[in-house]
Structures
1.
Amino acid sequence: MRGTRSSRPCFPPPLSHLLPTGKAAAPIPPESLRPESLLKVTLGGMTLTALQQPPGAPPGCPPDLAARFFAEFDAAKEGPFGSRDFHHLRPRFQKACPRSHVRLTGSAVQLSWEQRGGAGSRGRAFSTDLLFGQLEVLECLWPEGATEPEYTELLSFPNGSGFGASARPCAHLRYIQTQRRIPKSHPRRAASYLCTSDLSLELAEFQSDVELGALDRLGALFHLATTPMAQEQGLLREPPCTVERQTVLRVTAPHATLRLRFPIPDLRPQHNPWAGRAVREELLRLELTDLEFQSELSHGPNPQAPTLLELTCSDLHGTYEDREKPAVPCLRVSKTLDPQGPGRKYILPKAVVTLNPQCSSSQWDVVLEKGEEVELSSAESPCELRQPEPSPFSSKRTMYETEEMVIPGDPEEMGEFQSRTLALSRCSLELILPSAHIFLPSKEVYESIYNRINNDLLMWEPGDLLPDLGPAASTATPAFPGPSAFWQEDFKMCKSAFKLDSDSEDEDTHFFSVDESGVPQPPAPEPRSPRTQSTFSTLVTVLKGRITVLCETKGESGKKLDDCHGELVLDVTQGTIFSVSQYLGQPGLGYLCLEAEKAALYHQAVVDDYLLPTRLEVPSFTPPAHLAPTIYPSEEGVTDRGSAGRKGQGQGPRMLSTAVRIHLDPQKNVKEFLVTLRLHGATLRHRMALPNQSWHCQLLDFLDVLDDPILGFLPPTVITVLHTHLFSCAVDYRPLHLPVRVLITAETFTLSSNIIMDTSTFLLRFILDDSAIYLSDRCGSETLDLRKDYVCVLDVDLLELVIKTWKGSTEGKLSQPLFELRCSNNVVHLHSCADSCALLANLLQYVVGSGDLHPPARPPSPTEIAGQKVQLSESPASLPSCPPAETALINQRDLTDALIDTERSLRDPALPPGGGSLRQASPVSVYLFPGERGGAQAPLPPDSASESGLGVKEEEAEEEEEEEEEEEDGDGDALDSDEFCILDAPGLGIPPRDGEPVVTKLQPGSITVRDGHFSRPLGSTDLLRAPAHFPMPINRLVLREVSLIWHLYGGHDFGPHHSHRTKAGFSGPRGSPSRCSGLNRPQNSWRTQGGSGRQHHILMEIQLSKVSFQHETYPTERAAAPGAELGEQPLARQVFIVQELEIRDRLASSQINKFLYLYTSEKMPRRAHSNMLTIKALHVAPEAGLGGPECCLRVSLMPLRLNIDQDALFFLKDFFTSLAAGINPVIPMDTATEGERLGQRAEGE
């Protein structure tokens, strides 16, 4: 064995790739040094015991304890290290050392030490090899008054080889140190030396208990061991010499098992960390394959560089163990192929810990700041040129009314904020997970893991473990030592490090000092320095990740169903999680950022239970076959301009972005969360489900967990302000029992709310901008194009919805409504033919009646609608379209009494097929209104109605327009007074004789001005407000200034599909002024094109402008004074107001503009801000209290004017007849159930 060890090389490969470049850092080749000394030692076993120093214990080792320790082991005649493990030694160590200590025990120990040197003082090298056949590192903690210690296995090898010539050592420690002298750059300078060290540790399969309390005590022990070394002596024993040290550390193992113990946090001031191990029974077992840990430490006269601790592995498997319950595999991380790397190059899971120096800024940063300030000094306004501070929120301000909308930053802003925060953090952790899978089998497991991590691991605080050793120890930080905690930290930068020959900058250096506070500074928005460090920051990057959640499945009664569960799967691509605590030195301030390039959610409400896996496998990230897609990236052609907006813009927005600002006010004990979320280019597949089986209900129920109490911690009051923004998103709904596909798109959707714990007020606001509802009858295709296969039936410009709830007061009095809903919008356009409008009405009935859960029963086939037998099984598209030229032929029976003169009926036969250019004699005589031509055009055949009918109309258009102008000039009532309000015009009726103007005096004498003659106006009057003596309502529903324009088209939207659609721009000779409201969105003009059979030259519009509605319900309790009579008590109140109502005639064959509008004249001018229709209803309880409620109805209607064109009247009749025929009647559930039973019985017979 010794011969084998002597033949091994003493030096590893050169470390040039790990050391800084330059002449001074070049290592010494091992071949150039000659051997000087060689030492080899073989031991059967060894033990190293280091006593811990709890407060109150005497420092050092008492003499009686040392004598007792060695006497205990001298009494043993047999060798103590003969077994494969060291469990049998624990009772003997209990007797030998009844104090808290850390013990290292090893067997089959081999030590080899060699020294090499060069000629003169060129350099020197030391090599040490230490091998252990069996090794154990143990912490033995003796609590006060305990009879037995508590053990923590810091390092153990369960499969140790023990003794044997062929046995492989479980630990191999190699330490190589080289020294070389650096040539002097100046004769007066002291000599300097470069010391490079390489420490490598090769471990066999091992396991370790990771406990924060044990690591804290171990760090305090190391600190005590290094504190007496006040000065660096140097290996050459030349105190004046400057020594620069560089140490490279490597630890490798083929397999490692880390058992993470969760601490029990105790935030009480009288907590004693030496009282015993305060850990939970639950633990997280992490199994790592191909473990490799490496780090590089440097110390010297140069500025301290950040210390990096890097841990990599090829596979990671996590198992959560909870007492006697079965172990749950909850985590799996594995390597993946690099898609951009050459060949089969893998991306490994990696964890990098960066420890930055504790100084606030380096001299190089000071120089950069100085250069920037010099450049700004020449500008007139330096404040305008200053760049904004990086933030996870968007720097582009978006205002809505008087409130600023908070939006997450774009990828560039997020990346700048994260990189800057990582660089200015005392400690940062970066995790790279190429392929990750998290499995949560139940809510109970999730609640346990949540409390262990969030309330135990993250709330734990280190204790004061160091005894009072004087002022030297009081300045140290024992809890979390920095990268230079084991050497001196009193090094100060000299200016010669960056300027060797100039001392002219001494007078100006204090202007750039970050630590000085006495120098007058210009006013800044924040008192802190921009170079102040954050405490801890974390960045987790997941290339591909999946989260699988198994939740409870509840029935309609809310009880859990047996033998089944709900399942949710979330897939993430290129996801990042970033968090920082004590941001830039501000206590209580932190940020959390979540981003994902792509995300998809799959859900199934009811899944049969299956056997849970004992070990997680690497997922393939294909959509689960047994789950349905719920939220996924929008397909190409689904949104209006979501894909087009990303072209030519470089890096587009991520699909998911979330930024959270966390601020804790310790004085008020209030914790505020500002949460903003942005979802871009996502589609939600809506599916009807039972109340407790929807994906959001199951997810919220799964996440609704309780926090375990923490000793010495008072939970703060939580205030959550939520801003949710959806850009270019859609909702896809495909009914199961209705032949239609629905797509709802929203270019911008904003949800804002405030959630305050233990308060009674909740506010929720929705803002919907540029949204639309599309229908399609192509149910067989999986993928459809928005512009080719869908018909836009509803177009919403801007809609705001505010919901406010209040739990009420403890006194029982209402100071505000318990529930209040307010809605307002700009304008809503409804574009529909008769069939699309009927389909929309059927869809509303289907959704309200939960048609997917309760399939509607089919009514009897023949149904009488409007006096006609109509087959409801036929779709509205199958009904024949009715052009205006054909209406006289089709509706002659309905208008016999009013419009037809039977004595003048003509019985001439129809024209032959070739006589299309001649006029056909009408079979009826149509009654004409005064002013219309007697020789009206006769109706044409259906084949030529759309061509020759329009041509004849165009020929007579000029003559009819002239007559209309003459009629309007002669009729004073027809003046358009929409733009004028005529109050009074005295003296206009008597013109002067001589033609000269005459001044009419209304009052002889002087005019007397009386103060207060006219009462002071009270301001704007809210017509929806209830009288002052009315009680406070319980619920209130308010719709304010909602405008609706319904465009009624001829033809049909659905039915036989043609190769192309009719463009809306060539709809006919007459335009619609109501479409001018959409001129600010020219990109949405294609929405009016409709289906292939829509006739744009046949159009009527119904416009309701500024519609307001309010519904209030009042409490039913009667509160009256004793002896007073009970009057009428209001129960509910409704107010419906329409400011303007118009029906416009846009038929190409009609010369009338307005079909119905407000009547105005010189005697009856229109009043400003008047309402055309006002309906008020008041529901009251009777005075005697007997009987049902009574209703008082008040209707106010301003005068109307009708200009009825015959074609327009026939079109309205045909439209609503087809609409009524296409709407499925509502059948009660009992009738439907009885019909299904009768149908099943008939089938059985």
2.
Amino acid sequence: MTDARAFYVKDSNNTFVLPTSIDIPILSEPGQVVSVDITNDLPEGSDIVNLLQNEQAPQQYWLNFAQAFVTKTQYNDAEEVLTNAVASPQFALADAALAFHVFLAWLYLRQSEAGGPGSTALLRSATAELQQHASLPLFVLTQAIVLLTTAHYDQALDLFAQVLVLQPSNTVALTGRAHILLHRQQYGAALKLYQQVLILNPLLTPDSRIGIGLCFWFLGDTQMAQRAWERSLAVAPSAEARLLLTLAQFDALFTRSLSDAEFVTSYRTALTAVKDQQALDPENATVRLMLAAHHYARGEHEETARLAGAVIQQLATAAPPGSREQAHAKSHLAVAHFLTARVSFAQQDYTLAQKHFHDSIRLNDQLASSKLGLAQAQLARGSPDEAVMTLESALKGAAPGRERAETVELIYALGVLYAAKALADARAVEPRIKAIAHLEKYVRAAGKEPVILNVYLLLSQLHEQTDVTKASAYLQKAVVMLKKQKREIPLSMMNNCGVFEFGKGNFQNAKQFFELAKQQNDGDATAITLDYNYARVSEDRALYDDILVRCPSYTDAKLRVLFLSTIEASGDTDKLHLLHAELKSLVDENPDSTALRSMYGWFLHNHAKALQLAPELESSHHKLTVTNVDSHDTYALMCLANLYYTIAKDIRSSAKKDVEKKNQYFVRAAQLFQKVIKVDKLNVFAAQGIAILLIDFQHSAMGLEIFRKVRDSLNDLSIFVNMGHTYLQLHQFAKAIECYELGLARFTTGDDARILSFLGKAWLLRGLAEKSLSCLSESVKYAEKAYQLNDLPALKFNIAYVQFQIAGFVLKMTTHQRTLKDLEDAAVGLEDAIQSMAALAKGTHPPYPADDLQARANMGENTTRKQLADAIQEQQAFVSSAEQKLAEALKQKETEQAKLQKERDEQLARETKAQEQMAAERAKLQEQASEWVNEMASYVDGNVSDDDNKDFEAEPKKKKGGKRKKKFINDSDNEEESDDGAKKPRKRKESALKPDSKKRKVISNDLIEDSDEELEGEGYAEEEAGSDENLF
């Protein structure tokens, strides 16, 4: 097939372009041509067809004229040229018509992109052209493009893969695959393909840099995306690159502006770019929508509605169904309906706004802003439940991954709706939980962005009834935010901060907040409340009196005054009678006030016995509260439950009737505790009551688990005391002691006699269980501390009881386990115990029957005292015997050590003497060896002449005399070989040390090597199979 580029020319960018004119050879006049100006005077398609047919022009002329018509957007003329070429007998062969079919398919695709009613028919025509040569790679590629255009992505992907198998570097197929992967949100894979296309063909149209920028954009790297589009605009200017850069400018100014001035400047620049785009392409839907959003922000609703309506009218039927263009049109239409809905909402036409929001969601289900707007419209129409359902479905359908700005707004809106439900109904648990979950999720999702102030305030309100610490923390965050923004903190927030600090026990901080609130206050309506809160922190009687002067009916202030008066009048029955009468009068005047009734019940519980009031008065009072005032009053229910439990514990008889009655009271107490928990699921006091009942019925593990959970919520001494009691019952004495000590250290100053007595009991039980005298001694110490703080007879009995236990414990110990001091201390303690028991027996209020106390004292005096005296004598004898044995053992040890030391000294002296002898002998041998070396050197120098050396060199060496073994002297012991070859040590002979001996002397290696020949001439025999090594 002829290369159509042969008739093209290259421009300054080295790109093939059509020439300004085409010269057609005349068939009847060889060498002559007909020149057609295709730039300024291009004839109609029919005239060109007649000319080409008459002159039987080659294929490339038909293609060039078709391209010229396409360049001038004369698609009908181009189609006429191509269809006549296909029908011409000149191109009857399939290969000849191939290029025309491809061109026609491309032309139909090009026309379908413009949209309109005939787009579907054009796509069918393109498909028909491709099917005639479906097996050829070029047609496969073109068919894939058609499928891509009609949004049949799976089939298109398969065809692109077929082309790439045959042509791995086909940039069109690679670009098609990249488009599909980009559509499927596989941005990483699409980016690699676009980059591969850019390497293979940097000048390919459409520019792959646009796709690269889109991939970077969706991957979150907006700066790289902007750089890719800028490069595309520089290399191959296009409206797409320019528009994408404008969108990137808007994104940058909304997300990366560091100041208001920078934002304004950037916004003006971006808006200018949009207007420039509008001037170049007034019908561009994207530009229209951007300008519509701008006008909406300026409050120009009519212009917004006009632009959005123009987009809706333009795109309603522009794209063929099922095509990519239709998907893009839907996206633009969704935004246009969204803007129209916002205009309607601003004009308070909520019904029309809801309709447009629905249309927007129908066109683009992922547009979270439309769902949020729909929820707002539903809420404005009075349908909060529908708004909640809309937001929940929007969150479920949100795209996975990192939180987008729209999703964060959905979370916030849903949290606010749930919070409104929860605050409207204090007993609504589920809305409260959901509101807290969504608002806290919003705070986490906001990240570095500033959190809406209302979120912290709502979270603080939602946590007020359940977690004061969290409520205070969120309110403090709101205060910090206002301080950073240099805004005035409202009086109500300062007051609430003080209330929360008071609830946490931080009274000084609460006082400071209340003082700040009072300084900001300028109205009488809130002055009374602020003064009461301040008085509540300081508990100043004068402040309460001042409040009652200004507002005599302030019941809370009256209650605080009565409470303080009751504390002051403790032990004064006359004052208590007056206070009782005043309280009774207040309750009669305000029978429905649960606060007053609770105060009166507390007074009866603590002072009814001292005032000799009827024992059943307290229970009847609480029963009236539950039956006549409020059946869900938790204080009255708790008091009745505690009362029934106490009655049950006081029944100690084992008779069947009494046991049944006891169990009935236990059941009543359990039922009341359970009712309290139903009313208030976070009531830790009721939970403790149930735990105590479980422990009483031998379910200690379950009760202990409840105590552990309560400990995390309740900052009170009772939980540590109850846990200590439970651990005692479980015989985990170390943990019980730990709980008591934690409670003593955290909630008292170490002077609580009750807790100290509990510690004494725990140490006693631990000592008896572990058979530890030190633990029993600790028990005595704690019992004595408790008695010093409160001289109750029962506490004095505790000391004596433990002292008796110590005496008995020490007597049971063996003489090896105890010491004389232990016995003496036990004897002293026993004397104190005997006196204490006798005194308690004679007292007016003995803790136990006097006879039992006296009997124990007599037993200690008559029996235990004598046993301790005998034990002391026995221990003294044992100690004396042990000391004598120890002294003898020490003396024997010293004698043995002295003997061993003497032997070591003698051995050391012998070794030192032997070493000195060996050193002297070695020095003497070295001196003799030195003399022999000198003598041998002088002998060799005086008896060997030059003539002898010459004769020795001329004649062969002869051995004289028989062989004899060379003898030598060294510093080591001599050895000789036995018959079996083993060497045996032998003593050095004295004759070997004489100067006239015939044995060789020890000389240096150098001397031997230089004088072997002379020695042989003098009659020295060589050693058999010897070498120089034998000399050393």
3.
Amino acid sequence: MHHITQTTTATTMLLLAVVLMVPWQITEGVENLLLNPSFEDTPAGTWNTKGFRAEQYADDKLDGRYSLRCSERKKKLVGPSQYTTGLRMGSGYELRAYVKLLNDNPDKLWQQLKAVVRFDFTVKVEGNTLRPISERPPRCVGLRDQKRKDCLAVLKTWRDKLKKQNAEKKKLNEQRKKEKQRKKQEKKKKKQKNKKKKQDKIKKQKQREKDKQTKKDKNKKDKEKKNDKKAKDKTKEQKDKERNKAKEQKKRDRQRNKEKKEKDRQKAKDRKEKAKTGKGSGARSSRNQTRIRTLSQLAPSLETQTAERTRRDVYHPIIRQRLLQRQRHRRQAQLPQTPVAGEDEHLMLGIETAQGAYIIAWRAFVRSEQGWVLLTGNINAPMLPFSGAELAIRGPDEGIDFLLDNVTLYEIPERSDWLTASHAMIDEHRKSDINLRVTVPAGVNPADVDVQLELKNHLFGFGSKVEDKLLYRKKTQHFRDMFFNLFNWATIGSFKWRFDKSRDLYSPDFSNAEEALDVLNEHGIKVRAHSIVWGVQKNIPDKVVATPPEELPRLLKFHTEYMVNLTRGKVEHWDVQNEFLHGHWYEETMKDPHVSENIFKMARPLDPKVKLYLNDFTAVNSGANTEDFHDMGVRFIKANTGIQGLGVQGHVKEFIKPTSTMIWRRLDRLAETGLEIFLTEFDIGWRDDVVRADWFEDAMRAYFAHPGLSGVILWGFWKDWQTYQDKYLVYGKDMKFAEQGQRFVCLTQKEWTTRKTFNLRDPIPPSVRGFRGDYEVIIRKRGIPVQRETFTLGKETTVVDIRVTDSNVPIAVQDKHDYVPQCISHRDQKSVGTVNSSLSQSAEFTCSDRMSPTSGSFNGAEVSVTCEAGEIMTSCSSFHAGHSSGTRRGERITVEDGVVTCTAIKGTGSPEGVRASARCCRASELKCDYRQAGPSSPMDGAMAESTCPPGHMPLGCSIFNQYSVLEGAFPNQDMTSCLAQSGPPLSEDPALKSGAVSYAACCSKPGLQCRQVASSQQPIRGVINVTCPLGDVMTGCNVMGEEGGLAGAHIDTDQSSGVSHCRAFVGNDLPDGEAKVSAVAICCNSSSS
């Protein structure tokens, strides 16, 4: 490893000077993970230069003596690379390098530069499991002196071992080949035998069929003889009748034929007379021409109907996508391909699964006259174990020479206080003050009046892409109800050019998108239209690609005007150009670098109210394009295009965990443009539902906290209608909420909302802090709603004056459907340790109490207790020594070196310390796995659930909360997990918010059966007791109370009777008659005890 301060003085000074100019700053002394970054030493031994000529270059450099000249490149993706072992899983890393092109490609407007980090994964994903990858050879590139010699020696050993393994493998393959040949011969003989049997069987079958047919023919002949005999037996009278009848019929036929011939002769005679006089020919000719025109008009009509029917049948997204793929393959085979930046899009989209390559930096618009160009970007290392990584600078087109200098790769440390910081940022940037002033008329008792204040619609955008048909089909009413409940924004993606149902480019048909837009407008949903043009060639319609270049300007002008006029006054945003950083087909085809800028200029005056956006990816979900997207936004502003926003897509790839530090770093850079920023296509993929939900929640908190972001649009939310099947909120025909969907609802509609009720017998607080958006105020008299007022809360303090009327007439109040009544989080599920019993099988199932001394009286004081040798802890609880209320932070279970510790933590507000109580049991074959989950959302009533492994059940439940009130811990009804419920925060300070953490002592034992026993909720002060049924052993005890303020619980065993009591303590400062508290015990029995 090298330190930047260990490089030459000139290099250090220049680096610091550059830092002062570039917003993505690095500090002096940061550790560079690359060797020889300025190429002052020969690149051999530090940089891999295979496939091109690399040499130190002294004529053009940033500082020092040399830069690196890369020439004689025969392939596009060839460039210098270096291997490093300094990267850590999940950490953030940033690259800064300077590149200068020495020549250009005359056939292209721009060149692209990129840097790729290729990780050597030590595991691979198979389904939901990780499998080790076979041993890899050591990498000796970048090592020097003795280390290099040692590495080469290890490499030689590895190669010898591999050679031996290959020889053994070859021998084994030969044996397998011989065995396979033997089996093949046996199979062939068996096949021949079966074939002969089959032939014999067929021969017999044919003979049977022949005999059957012979018998059938004989029966037929006999029947014919009988019929002939019957015919001969007919009487002569009958034959005469038939003969006479036939004669009469012939006579009638001759008469009709005679009359017909006479009519034909008369018609022929009439036609000759008309031909002589010339009458009737023009009319007949006109009728014939009319007939021909009608048929000619009918043909295209039939063709149009067939095309319409075909388009209607294939409009389903999945079928249409497959057809479009086939069309693209045919187009690529027929049309000449123009080289565009999108050729390597599969790399930009994220991971190359086989090699583990990620784009860390990307520059899309580079030419030689620009001189030295900063290639910078950042990534989060994937959440898969890897042994090392290789950084590769991938150059432009083959034949383009370039210089490289000052390459720096360094770590960006994650903020440890990011969650607390996000709470404070959300309070600052997403909330404002409400001054609510209510006047009550004379004659109305203020105690009878309740004022209910509720946020109905966020100012911040929460939305999703929506499929057209789901908005107007009769069978999708449930989907529409859920969509309008969850979101206030929508993206219609079928405004893309390839969804035009018409074959004529100048008579487009976007009727499906129009119908969906009307439905969304009717329900007050704001809409993003996506998109006017898309520069990546494979996403451009064939009919557009086939248009001659000289016709494209006229076509683009028509298309832009048509699309903007189509949605005028109906949409909030238009994505004018999609993924311009990754595809420049229009510019390259028309040889005009200003095509996209001109499209903006054409669109701006057509709808002055709509905001025009650039939309692209890897600018926030990763940092590969952040700098380039920032520069492009600035360029469009300087060109007076009328641009108003940057849309960042946000497709987070597998194995990449989004972190707030990197998200905020990227958004800070984009926000410097002054443009509005929307996250337009957000989704996260991971095979584990809980892990995916954890990452989704963390990312949502980071996005909502940043002041530069105005909205988050999901790229679909229903699994049945999503392209990516592991990125959904709801699934199934009945649209059940997955863990990720529950987190979304709990954030947007519970934690990030404002609902307050004031009774006018007490003064209303002078200032109420609320989330920004549209509010509804309901006035209730004696519980009956009689008056409604509305207002909007923006960035400034809003004064709301309400005059209560004399009316007592009830009004209708419509509440939102609550799709997630209880917020239960399973985040960060893990085991803190396991313990197994070492007792003999004859040992009985018995339990004892172990109590700690009293802790100190200061906030955060801790005290612990452990079990004795041979005992296993099944429960951990805590309580205030004097049973006062105050606040406990609860208890925590830790396991170290096989010893389980129960720790009680004191909170604020009580003069007394706390004590820790452990339940310690002895039993044969008892195994316990101590599980932890949480924290929950930091709000009243939110829960964290720690789930037991299969075959285990919770014998004790514990709760911990850093700041908020504790409402208790208890097992679920199925006895498969423990739930810890949080109360309201103790302070209005947003930095003092935290959720509940759940602990579960999950144990198993043959024949063990357990159940929950709870006392009835009792509105009294003092102690609440509950005992187990006769024959059961109490293994756990805790307290549950909806009002919080609990003094704790512990198990107390009567020494004389041996009966164990679960004692729950009600805080002495809770109002009498209001505190509903239960003692919750877990009772078990074992058939083997």
